[in-house]
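Exercise 3.2. Students should predict the tertiary structure of the chain below and write it as structure tokens, then compare their answer with the key that follows.

Predict this chain's 3D structure.
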Amino acid sequence: MSKFTQTIEQNVMNYYRPHFQILKKRLKEKRKFIQIVVGPRQIGKTTMVVQLLDKINLAHQYLSADAIDAANSLWIEQQWEIVRIKLKTSRAKQFILVIDEIQKINNWSEIIKAEWDKDTRNKINIKVVLLGSSSLLIQKGLTESLAGRFEKIFMAHWSFTEMNEAFDLNANQFVWFGGYPGAVNLIKNEKRWKYYILNSLIETTVSKDILMMQRIDKPALLKRLFELGCLYSGQILSYNKMLGQLQDAGNTTTISHYLNLLNSGGLITGLEKYSKQRVKQKASSPKLQVYNTALISGQMEEKFNEILTQPDKWGRIVESAIGAHLINYSISENFNVYYWRHRSNEIDFVLENKGKIIGLEVKSGIKQLAKGMEIFKKEFVPDRMILIGDKGLPWQEFLRINPIKLF
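Answer key:
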């Protein structure tokens, strides 16, 4: 192992994301809620929990359901009973049970509910942490069985600030290589880095997580939709145009459903058009947006030093980085992200929080200032209008801001 690789791995283990302190505080409290840690693949959920288990002086058991047969629901009960025995024989006052990739087990939420309630009745002090990489499946289980019994901690893709502090990535590097900490040690060999992004991240999430856990009638269509979403990230594309691009005998309902699945995997989302009427928002054409710009660059032929000399392509990736920054924070900070367009006038992003509205326009050096901001301001009277780019707030600085602080 090279010194560079060793340094990267040390940085991953020594850097503590904000979620570390949140979970640490909750586990020190009296047993009351199951802690659910959810987020996309390869963003450090397991690392964060392992860091915590190493730091706190409490008896614990870490388990992973990743290699367990989905039908083996008895496995959870067996492991839980072992933890009860360990708690009793160790004479510890409490025990922490961690189960990773919990969504891989069928009917997991019902079994967790039964075991948790059993401990509650018998006053057994086992605190539980569950980790999952499919927010859609996790949320389904929480809604069906665990209502009132859990708190959720969402971990998004790494921000520029985190990647800069942990690995010293500059803004340009972050825009191109994205927020995957596990891939940082590969960026000096970009061909190898792209192979990792394609096979260990994209293929695993699309083929393993989504296709194996959801009934997908057209798996090839799902994969092509993902590729299309990356290609057109930052652009508004109607579902009918998507069908034309995909050349598949599907329908717009199928495309919309598949886009929701890709969104649940933390890959791509479709932003709605901002409107005062909720019905018009739902009926709008989506603006495609990746959660991590590595999903774009990992599929491009160009290398980092080549893309910097192509202003058009680079400008689009920078805008996607701004969009990814917004949608990742929107989940943890609970604000909404939209776009706005009327005829030829457009606002790149519209933020909404508790009735307040902020319009954001991203302009690279090659783009001219449009009238969209003036028209949007006149029609909606936003609380703030912000221009991001050479003639406004530098995009490098914006990537360091938690968007909730703009309100």
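Discussion points: The chain has two domains: 18-154, 205-406. The chain has a mean pLDDT of 90.
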